[in-house]
Here is the input.
Amino acid sequence: MGKKVSLKQIAEAAGVSSALVSMVLNGKAKQYGIGEEAAKKVMAIAEEMHYQPNLMARSLRSGHSHLIGLIVADIANPFFADLARVIEKTANERGYTVVYSSSDESAEQMERQMNSMYNQGIDGIIVVPCEYSADAIRDMAARNYPMVLLDRDLPGVDVPSFMIDNAAASSSMTRTLLEKGFRRISLISYDTAMNHAVERRRGYSQAMRDAGLLPDVHCLPYKDFSAEMRTIFTQLFIEQKRADALIFCTNALTREGLFILRELGLSIPNDTAVFGFDGGDVFDMYDPKISYLVQPIAEMGSMAANSLIDVIEGNATAKSVYMPSSLVLTPSVERNSK
Amino acid sequence: MGKKVSLKQIAEAAGVSSALVSMVLNGKAKQYGIGEEAAKKVMAIAEEMHYQPNLMARSLRSGHSHLIGLIVADIANPFFADLARVIEKTANERGYTVVYSSSDESAEQMERQMNSMYNQGIDGIIVVPCEYSADAIRDMAARNYPMVLLDRDLPGVDVPSFMIDNAAASSSMTRTLLEKGFRRISLISYDTAMNHAVERRRGYSQAMRDAGLLPDVHCLPYKDFSAEMRTIFTQLFIEQKRADALIFCTNALTREGLFILRELGLSIPNDTAVFGFDGGDVFDMYDPKISYLVQPIAEMGSMAANSLIDVIEGNATAKSVYMPSSLVLTPSVERNSK
DNA sequence: TTTTCTGTATGAATCGTTTAGAATTATGGG
DNA sequence: CCCATAATTCTAAACGATTCATACAGAAAA
Here is the structure.
């Protein structure tokens, strides 16, 4: 790779010191009282030689890189991809560049990635924490590394997070189904102790009990949950007619659920209503359109990015915020749509 | 942010020079003939002080960062998200970290991003070029910046690219439809001079002409093509019954097309067959499932990453490769599925 | 004793910037 | 003509890691 033009080369070409060149090119000519003439000359030569600063050297010296990191579970999940786009936009507006990475829900991988970002000189990170990652997060926080959490929180870990109130959200979804006349509502969740999942289960269970009904929660493994889901649906709808509505706790679960329901020849909403967390093309396109809870992706992303940058720049100390969520209702939760 | 532990601090703590510490921690103790005792002590202290190298300083000195950049059109598009995941995996296996960015199909933005990566000290980049970006790409290539193109190429620009043979692909899609008995096949494309789009149109037109039929190509704008597509479909299927099959040139077009066909009350494949470029959840979930052309994402991504890294490490000089594509056929292209 | 070698360890330069403080030059007043 | 003051510009020391050339023991050979 061809060598880049350095300050020193410009300095030589202009017959001045590299310090002066640095000052001029950083727009600090006034501040340092540099002569018009010299400044003009330096700028002309820099232009002509196509000078571009070496950001690594600059960061090394200045102590900040204007880079922020984003670690999500899976960048190929549309929910996170959309978040990433928003964060990138917000960060760019404030002069920062975003570097992202997918943790694949692995705490180990996440720890490596956080460390790598830290060592890379990235100014701070936005993290969607995964299971068992509390220790790693705490360690990073203990080093005073600027950090905010997104979409999920870690109870007992003192790092600000930006997310919806998951219990309230699932409770509201449940009540909506109840109001529409569904009584045998089952919740499909993951077998995880992550707080956002726990809260979603809790909100649902609470709402069911408040209505005098028994909660029915099913927890599936993270990977390869397809077979198990098929078994569950067979029980719920075919063998025992035990349910008339389903709430799915993530878009991946909803997606797989729809495939399996179709496979089993079950129709929505006649055999079962369907309500999911987070939207997606698939759900808008499905016939009938699927109802889902919408998280305020734009607000969550920009608030997380802005808060992180505020912390990095020492303007403020970030505080956790619960963002408002909303429901998109479709025929998939209408009782007598027949 | 708390200061990190530096080599010098370890050197002081161990009562040796920082040179020695560097050598030991890089596993070059043998090579430089360092005493067992000193090496042990340094390693112990480094461990104890939780030393982590400052990668920026290392890169500045060594001239390479072990970072590669990836610029795609839109990371929220599942096709690119999947590519990104594969590239990340391949790069990690070879000790590199990937930094990505979305160009939004804007040449200007892309140029800024390429420059930023170049200045960041990123060792090389994988780019999905967009319209009007040829000059910017040529400039970067002229600087000898390691670079490969992905998914699309730029005729007249001498940078290796990894992509399918788009003309052959669309020609094969067209022939498949012809064999199944469709005669009035229309192609829905973008209004762009990008080579991959041109090739897709060409392959289709060629196949039509070979069958003695007139090609019918419709080019839509990149953004907000919805209204125009509705108008076209109304003409094609309602006012004039002029078509019995559609080939969509990208997954975004297919997706929107499905929405509009449904809105217009047209059924697949009775009113029109549907064949798209690139898959997605939506298409597998649609009823009927939608046929599409599959690009070898895993091979394309890993080959691009590996080639780029080979160039960076001076092992080889990359050469363009046409990857094989395949078709997923479903009832959406079956004539008498009624 | 002097010379040569071996095994270890170090100093100093380097990558490209930034910036505090010193140095130079110019200006003008006395 | 000297000196204070201001107006410019420069020197040099960082930032943290790498690596070549060199230093300095002490042991072995002469």
Summary: Chain B touches chain A through 47 residues (CB under 8 Å).
